[in-house]
Specification:
Length: 239
């Protein structure tokens, strides 16, 4: 497998083609963005830490029956992934209220809702990734109702698996964002990344934020906190 040309240069990641039309290479940068790219900063090594965390989580999910784009880690910043046709939706799974939902409904951050909440957003930066509902997503031609059923079932399974992964590590899985795409056979798979950039991880004892909220709210120690998540995941391997 040989790396070829840059096909997408995002804020936090780059995607390269390879000599195999069924695969791409994901490259994790050291840039952080927030509030729909209004706030941007550079954090040395963030990309290395996120590449490791996301690869660990995708490998874990795949070993537990979730179809994902992840194939292998190539080096400290890059992973080989199945090529996908991206579905322009973001599914946010919330075990606790935080962030935009806490603001929008005026509910205190950290409140546990009586049921897990699933939000659907239209992945469209120009529009600010607005919330949409299932019928809007189908009407826009983005997905079918069967696709949505598969996506929600997968999000539910991923949440159960991530709770099993993080709870013993004393990390509260507050919320996280998932993206989906279609592989070359048209089958829906989990894509993108799962990391402290796309999730809220709180220390279970102290509620210390171990995620991008440290950047959003200028709490400092961003990469150190991401490393804490990585160290706890790695500690599973030494048991
Ligand atoms: N999230 C993300 N990308 C986005 C929007 C949200 O990865 O474009 C993640 C975010 O990091 C958090 C969860 O999804 O873990 C829920 O975010 P929320 O809707 O509360 O929005 P935010 O607080 O980021 O505005």
């Amino acid at each position: 497998m040989v790396k070829q040309s840059l096909i997408f240069d995002g804020n936090e990641k780059r995607v390269y083609s390879t000599d195999d039309p069924a695969t791409v290479i994901f490259h994790f940068k050291d840039v952080a963005t927030a509030f729909n790219n209004v706030k941007t900063a550079y954090f040395p090594e963030k990309g290395i830490v996120n590449n490791k965390i996301s690869a660990y989580i995708f490998d874990y999910l795949q070993r537990n029956g979730i179809h994902t784009h992840y194939i292998a880690t190539l080096n400290e910043r890059e992973q080989l992934c199945r090529k996908s046709e991206n579905i322009p939706l973001e599914v946010v799974v919330r075990n606790y209220i935080a962030g935009s939902l806490a603001d929008r409904l005026a509910i205190e951050e950290g409140t546990k809702p009586s049921t897990v909440i699933y939000d659907l957003n239209y992945n469209n930066t120009e529009l600010g990734d607005p919330l949409i509902n299932d019928t809007q997503a189908v009407a826009l031609g983005i997905v079918s109702f069967d696709d949505l059923k598969y996506i929600y079932d997968t999000a539910h399974k991923v949440n159960s698996l991530l709770l099993e992964l993080f709870t013993p590590l004393k990390i509260k899985l507050v919320d996280f964002k998932l993206e989906f795409g279609r592989d070359t056979d048209g089958t829906i798979m989990l894509i993108d990344e799962i990391s402290p950039d796309t999730s809220r991880f709180w220390d279970a004892d102290t509620d210390k934020r171990l995620d991008k909220d440290r950047f959003r709210h200028d709490l400092g120690y961003i990469v150190a906190s991401y490393k804490e998540v990585l160290d706890r995941l790695m500690s599973r391997e030494n048991k």
